[in-house]
């Protein structure tokens, strides 16, 4: 199947439709699903949470980890009376305070249905180093500005660009997971033994990616060094005017560089296929 799972998008407390997508994936897994949801950093358990709907409405046991003490106090209030284990620790990449260490020290079963990794920093390295915790569905936050064909991740203990969806897909493959969906901010993976090619798209992350946050790119005709700019997505009028001016000047002052706009018929064709000029 190639149809994207984004058609199931629905927000209860998630930001970009994750609640609806997770609900669909859980339905496909069915009776094999472990009804435990773990999220870190959990914030207050509700704000932009990808696990709240599971432990609050779907009968899941919750494991919520939050290192910020002020948020943890609110988390405690928001989960009162629910089957939720809350942990006040920052998750480390490895060793003490790693996710594996937290599960072991808290006496938690390693079997998890949905694992949400959302710490806006070392998400890639935390995911890569998980060995004890065995999750069926994993959400890992990626940098939505990095094109999905770039396999990028920050060095350990450095937070600069974080990581790309491609890097998450690769590590997932190495660990026995298949990327099946990308929302704007998250790459969603399912354990390989639960992958259903009739219900999940069998496609690389380049196809699954949400490109809406990627800035428009300038492309040229490729003929006669024509520098009339065509944009890969709808672009602000001011930016188009400034870009055109720059390339028009280049054509005036450089030999063998031209500036030839498309015909009106070709312009209509370009716009019909999603380009802008």
Mean pLDDT: 95
Strand adjacency order, main sheet = 3-2-1-4-5-7-6
Q: CATH superfamily of the largest domain, please?
A: Vaccinia Virus protein VP39
How many β-strands, per DSSP? 9
Indicate the CATH architecture of the largest domain: 3-Layer(aba) Sandwich
Largest sheet: 7 strands, mixed
- Which regions are unreliable across 5 or more consecutive residues at pLDDT < 50? none
| Backbone CA Rg | 23 Å
Q: What share of residues are in beta strands?
A: 15-25%
Using the coordinates above, name the CATH class of the largest domain: Alpha Beta
**Net shape:** elongated
| CATH fold-type name of the largest domain | Rossmann fold
What is the count of distinct domains? 2
Structural class: alpha/beta
In DSSP terms, counting alpha (H) and pi (I) runs of 4 or more, how many helices?
9
Oligomer state equals single chain
Helix share, percent = 25-40%
